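Give me the fold.
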Amino acid sequence: MDPETHAVDRHAVDRHAVDRHAAGWHFTTDVDEFLARTRDFLHSRPDLHTVQLTVTERLRRSGPQAYGDRPALLGHLVREDGGVGATLLHTPPYALGATRLTADEAETLAAVLVDLGRPVTGFASERATAEAFAAAWQRRTGASARLRERHRLYRLAELTDPSPMPEGRARVAGEADRELLVRWYDGFVEDAGTHGGRGGADWADFRLSYGGVTLWETADGTPVSMAGVTPTVAGQARIAPVYTPRELRGRGYAGAVTAQVSRAALASGVGELLLFTDLANPTSNALYQRIGYRRVADWAEYTFGERAG
């Protein structure tokens, strides 16, 4: 996804939010305000709302520019009964993301964002919502839309260790591993072809602050794979990312470290443990199913070209 060209001024967002009250969308750059209004909605389905929950937790802990130089935009849709029906978040340079929307709601959101002058270079959500928004954005702007990735969200049902288990052991990464974590995170971002936001250093510092990375190391103490886990919010956490350097793949290390970080998360009291996979990678999808992860929903991410005119 290409970085956006500018940030949205908070006061401009608030003004347009009032103007668009009939459409039901309200916007802010204040994460505490957003969570105060949307907490019950987000907590109603921690699995389907995992991205919203974990990203806002990072914003709450690290500040509004945790993911890049431009502040996050947060929004919620108020339905006729006064309840929250959907939320969105945008943390440039990442794609704009939203919870489940009907086709009509996706059309309205596209219209509101066009009226705001909000640059949108990508959109990610459950597959039907992503498809509906991509079509609406094309109609409203004339921009091209390309399916970039298809993901599947999994929930851990019953943990099963991979068989055979590779030799070695798991341990939580510490400050002495920081350089390794930075290098491996940057390698993960390169392999995935995604923007890394603020990059490996910020990611490593945040994860180290709460013990959020587990390493698999061989019998001689050499790290060979890593699996991260997000902070626990609303009883859920998500495994991300899982990475093994290319030259060490195919030896069972990723399965072993994922199983061990999953076991540790459950032992800490996590109620729902989730992870995303790239549907273009059948090996990882099969691996996570073997160790007990089961499908929840499919996701899609679209990228958009420049707007016509």
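The radius of gyration is 20 Å.
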